[in-house]
Design brief:
Layout: H1 13-16, E1 22-23, E2 25-28, H2 34-43, H3 54-58, E3 92-103, E4 115-128, E5 132-144, E6 150-162, H4 163-169, H5 184-199, E7 221-223, H6 228-237, E8 246-249, H7 297-302, H8 312-327, E9 332-340, E10 350-360, E11 369-378, E12 383-392
Antiparallel strand pairs: 1-4, 2-8, 3-6, 3-9, 4-5, 5-6, 7-10, 9-12, 10-11, 11-12
Helix pairs in contact: 2-6
Length: 395
């Protein structure tokens, strides 16, 4: 524990024995609707008409609106981390450390209803400057539609730490205070980059594998400035956050399969599950519970973040959408592995840039793919996300 106080300990005894166990959790009552899809792309600022414009979509090979690949996380429970964030650790908080996704060729369409097979697959206790003893946990979720078709597999990494220790260390204390104020000229430049990106392939043309060369740069994208309004819009696009939208699902034959237990949140960051049966706001994360720090600076300070900040699952979705837009209607993102280096704070903007680094003619998928590195940076050039991805293109 070179960077930490050796007196600070984390009790992970309720985590260790759960390794390899299946996990329960929330499941949505209703199938995916066009409104769900439109709400999601609006929250992700993903201006791809295939996912919101009825007339445009009817003129494509799909014949109707389809969902973006990134929506699978919004049709899951708990921002997709239910399978990784298991076991009680008193005084803890949790943030995302990264996500890995695989997609198997089945598009999600209106009327599809996803089910989820979850398993807790790994953990590592280490020490960080941010919070001292810190636990990294992973888990797999298999996403299938109502026909049993394999849609995707996801594997997030969650970072659990002792909230009071992170608050004491104050690694992000310099972020406290008034978010950056952008001049009108700067906002105009941001808006132009944003427009140039969504006009770069609005018709959904797919580059052929033969056309692509090593070193090719994908069009630059920008998202932001991030705000309380944008964070709130993102939160509400995760369907499980809507009142009464899900039910708890247990795993028959699995002892204590971690359905809706309190993970050990500090005071003010847990839900009132019993009270919410009468007043659903008591498990509404924008009023109560672990997501409060995303939109409340004072609450963010209690968990070591010190300013309102965005969602890890959202950043992974930005990455997927960015690649899928470039790949067009005949392409598909097959694999994406993202590492989160830091949060998107209120007032920041996020720039997204990609580069083709490899062409793989004989891939493990059985068809050619291109490997693309993506980097997301803020206005100061600090990397917030880096990812390695494989994208299928027509050939």
């Amino acid at each position: 524990m070179a960077d930490g106080d050796p007196q600070v300990k984390m009790d992970i005894s309720d985590v260790e024995w759960r390794l390899g166990h299946q996990v329960g959790g929330g499941e949505l009552w209703e199938p995916c609707s066009k409104t769900d899809i439109r709400r999601w792309v609006m929250a992700m600022d993903y201006v791809n008409p295939l996912h919101w414009d009825q007339l445009f979509a009817q003129g494509t090979k799909f014949g109707d609106i389809i969902a973006p690949q990134s929506i699978a996380v919004a049709l899951d429970y708990g921002h997709g981390n239910n399978q990784a964030c298991v076991g009680r650790i008193d005084g803890q908080h949790m943030i995302f450390g990264g996500e890995e996704w695989w997609w198997y060729g089945t598009h999600i369409r209106p009327g599809d209803h996803l089910s989820h097979e979850r398993i807790f697959t790994g953990y590592k206790l280490t020490d960080t400057k941010f919070a001292g003893p810190t636990l990294f946990q992973r888990g797999d979720t298999i996403h299938r539609n109502q026909r049993g078709d394999l849609v995707a597999k996801s594997c997030p990494t969650v970072i659990r730490y002792l909230a009071k220790e992170a608050e004491k260390r104050g690694m992000y204390a310099s972020t406290a205070g008034t978010p950056r104020k952008w001049a009108q000229a700067e906002l105009a430049e941001i808006d132009q980059i944003r427009k140039d990106w969504f006009m770069s392939n609005r018709e959904g043309r797919s580059p052929h594998f033969e056309e692509v060369s090593l070193g090719d740069k994908l069009p630059r994208r920008v998202i932001g400035p991030h705000s309380i309004a944008s964070f709130t819009t993102e939160y509400r696009a995760f369907i499980f956050n809507i009142w009464g939208s899900f039910y708890w699902n247990t795993i028959p034959g699995v002892k204590d399969c971690w359905v809706n237990q309190d993970m050990g949140w500090i005071e003010g960051f847990s839900f009132d599950e019993e009270g919410a049966m009468i007043d659903p706001r008591l498990r509404d994360g924008l009023y109560l519970g672990p997501s409060r720090g995303h939109i409340d600076d004072s609450r963010a300070s209690e968990i070591g973040m010190h300013r309102a900040y965005g969602y890890g699952a959202t950043m992974a979705a930005w990455n997927t959408d960015y690649l899928a837009f470039w790949a067009g209607h005949d392409g598909m993102v097959r694999h994406a592995k993202s590492e989160f280096r830091g949060p998107a704070f209120e007032g920041d903007v996020t720039y997204i840039e990609g580069e083709v680094v490899e062409k793989i003619e004989k891939s493990e998928w059985g068809f050619p793919v291109v490997r693309i590195n993506v980097v997301m940076t803020n206005q100061d050039g600090k990397t917030v996300v880096s990812s390695v991805n494989e994208v299928q293109l027509p050939y």
